[in-house]
Amino acid sequence: MKTLRFHFTLVEVLAVVALVSLLAAIGFGAYSYAMNASRESNTKALLKRIEAGLESCRTKYGYYPASTSFTAISLTLKRDTSLVSAIQFGTDAMSSDYEKEFLRVVDEESLKKNMIKTLNASSETTTEMSFDLEDSWGGKIYYRYPGQINKGGFDLIAPGADGRFGSGNTTTPPTARTSYYSTDNEKVCDDITNF
Predict the structure, then answer these.
(1) Residue numbers in the chain where pLDDT is lower than 70
(2) Which of 63, 172, 53, 130 is nearest to 191 (CA)?
(3) Which of 145, 155, 148 is nearest to 179 (CA)?
(4) What's the whole-model pTM score?
(5) Which long-range contacts (CB under 8 A, 24 or more apart) does 30-36 make?
(6) Residue 171, class by beta-carbon neighbours within 10 Å (0-12 exposed, 13-18 middle, 19+ buried)?
(7) Rounded-to-integer distance, Cα 51 and Cα 34, Å
(8) What is the pLDDT of residue 119?
(9) Tell me, what's the pLDDT at 178?
C-alpha cells in the first residue's frame, strides 16, 4: 500500500518567498520611519531644553553667551566624577554661576547622552575631558548669538539625518546669510533648528 505525499511546487515556494520578502520590506520601512521620527523628536526636545536653559540665564543675568559665528556647543567633564565642569557656547567664557543656572534648568544627564568626544579628550592624563554636544544622528549642534535668523535672540542648529546643512554637502552651518534657507530647494532639507 502506497502512502500519499504532498509536495510544494516550485511556484508555491516562490510565491511564499515573495510574500515574506514583501512583508519584511514593509516592516523595515515602517521601522526605519519610526526610528527617524523618534530621533528627530529627541533632537527637537534637546534644542528646546537648551533654549529654556539659555532663556533662564538671560532672565537672571541679562545676557546670552556671545558667538560671532556658529560654534559647536561643548561641555567639559571631570574625569573622576563625570560631572559637567564647564559649558562653552561661544567665544566668551561663562561664569560658574551662569553654568549652574543653565544646568539647573537643563538636566545634566540629558546632556551627557548627547555628547561626542573631541580630540582634546583623548589624553588619559588630563583630569577633564571635552565633548561636543550632538544630535541623535551624531552631528554637532551649533550655537550663534546674535542670531542670523532670530535677530533678537540666538540660533541653534543641528544637521539632522543626512549630517549636512541645507541641501548641499557642507558639514558646517553657513557663516553669513540674511535668511538661512536661500532657495526653496533648501527648505526641504532635514536640518533641525530653533527658527
Answers:
(1) 1-4, 79-82, 91-93, 116-126, 167-169, 171-172, 174-189
(2) 172
(3) 148
(4) 0.76
(5) 36/161
(6) exposed
(7) 26
(8) 43
(9) 46
User: Hey, what's the cell of 108?
Assistant: 545634566
CA dihedral 33, 35, 40, 43 (to 10 degrees): -170
pLDDT in the model for residue 177: 52
Residue 122 has φ and ψ, to the nearest 5°, of -75, -20
**Using CB atoms within 10 A of its CB, is residue 117 exposed (0-12), middle (13-18) or buried (19+)?**
exposed
Q: What is the pLDDT of residue 95?
A: 79
- CA–CA separation, 51 and 33 (whole Å): 27
CA distance 144 to 108: 21
Q: What is the pLDDT of residue 185?
A: 54
Query: CB neighbours of 16 closer than 8 A, spacing ≥ 6?
Result: none
Q: Where are the alpha helices (DSSP H) in the chain?
A: 10-61, 96-105, 108-112
**pLDDT value of residue 52:** 92
**All 3 cell numbers of residue 68?**
560671532
**Phi, psi (5° rounding) for residue 133?**
-75, 140
Strand partners, 75: 87, 131
Q: Assign 61 to helix, strand or coil.
A: helix
Measured distance CA(134)–CA(116) in Å, rounded: 6
